[in-house]
Amino acid sequence: DVLRNDASRVNDIRHVIEADRAHVWHHLTQHKGFETTDPRIFVEGKGMRVWDAAGREYLDAVSGGVWTVNVGYGRASIADAVRDQLVKLNYFANSAGSIAGARFAENLIGKMPGMSRVYYSNSGSEANEKVFKMVRQIAHRHHGGRKSKILYRERDYHGTTLGTLAAAGQAQRRAQFGPFPEGFVEVPHCLEYRSQYGAVENYGELAADAIEAVILREGPDTVGALCLEPITAGGGVITPPKGYWEKVQDICRRHEVLLHIDEVVCGLGRTGTWFGYQHYGVQPDFVTMAKGVASGYAAISCTVTTERIFELFKDDPADPMSFFRDISTFGGCVAGPAAALENMRIIEDENLLANTQAMGERLMAGLWELSERHRAVGDVRGKGLFCGVELVQDRATKEPAEERLVQAVVADCMANGVIIGATNRSLPGLNNTLCLSPALIATADDIDRIVAAIDGALSRVFG
Ligand code: PMP
């Protein structure tokens, strides 16, 4: 249908584009550009491919732009599961349970040894806010109001609300939005390529020690939680250095700081395990997830915690406010867990974790090969189908490539039918990493085509 080229369709599409231009406020977009170009409108997707309003086909190497559509487009079985659920029961507030909600929680906990409870909401930001509120309520109820500070890491990102922006390790994201809630404290990043300590053998340990130094400076009795991405996504696809997570876990245990791992990007398969943290043998107190939970077929996010944390909110006759005093209206939409159940079944039945590992290795190998030929490639990082290519002006100085050149690489790939991403524009010093996160169904041909598109783009943009 999308390729139908009769006059009525062309008129329809023109109308849609003008309606969009006139009335839709796009995310993260400077609209001035639409005075001279049309807003892009995607109309159809199947597997790894999407088609735009002009009928052009693209290979999507970023799973819907922001690492979301993990099982690919056009999954009729998820649509059927959602439809069946909606006609049976679409909604009831989550103070009551639902069949799909209970079943998905049970299946999810089955993939997360040591975890026990699932709290439903709608977005990654919201799932993270729930943790912040749980930590604050624990501080009030069990630590006399102390242990309320939440540590976050330079370069990490946890969402778009004022609370999660207060925890953004990308300070530029906060510009023009203050004032912010108090009690959020930054710890240093762990990007070995841009080591704060020069070239050292034990970078991972030093980066973890830097977290402990912040805890000691603030006072361990004031610090409630440490919130980290398992692999930093938008801040540059930063895989943790050797020895980092072991030490982080140890520091948290010693200072009784709860460990919150934000799996909004890595959650459900992206890195070749169900969750990113499972590569590193850590045992978190909280795990949050959103994007890949239902691959974008429904809006659902989960805040998962342990029975030990859950017990802290158990009924206390002396305190009528002892339960977690929070609600999310649309956390009761049953479409979410219905879609999530089918999404998880697909990942399992189609062996997508194994495919992600194999195709991830192929992608990383292909990208490293590019670094041999293109001087602009400073570093290649990643795990599974989650990779970043940091572009630089000069390998010796590691001066970041100019944003306009990074964007030119993205645009060149797009013009050649491959959608790749880059770390956020307008974040100076952080905007020079190409991002790849194809769906977990990617084939060897898909991977090779993605690498070839980047190869060509780097030649054309950097010579
Ligand atoms: N955490 C991480 C690591 C993210 O990358 C994002 C979104 N890019 C969020 C949280 C926020 O998720 P949402 O946009 O669904 O609120």
UniProtKB/TrEMBL annotation:
Keyword Transferase: yes
Superkingdom of origin: Bacteria
Transmembrane residue ranges: none
Cofactor(s) needed for function: pyridoxal 5'-phosphate
SUPFAM superfamilies per UniProt: PLP-dependent transferases (SSF53383)
GO molecular function, one term: transaminase activity
Keyword terms: Aminotransferase, Pyridoxal phosphate, Transferase
Pfam families referenced in this protein's UniProt entry, alphabetically: Aminotran_3 (PF00202)
InterPro entries in alphabetical order: Aminotrans_3, Aminotrans_3_PPA_site, PyrdxlP-dep_Trfase, PyrdxlP-dep_Trfase_major, PyrdxlP-dep_Trfase_small
Gene3D superfamilies assigned: Aspartate Aminotransferase, domain 1, Type I PLP-dependent aspartate aminotransferase-like (Major domain)
PANTHER family the UniProt entry points to: AMINOTRANSFERASE (PTHR43094), AMINOTRANSFERASE CLASS-III (PTHR43094:SF1)
Family the entry assigns: Belongs to the class-III pyridoxal-phosphate-dependent aminotransferase family.
Protein name: Aminotransferase class III-fold pyridoxal phosphate-dependent enzyme
Species per Swiss-Prot/TrEMBL record: Azospirillum melinis
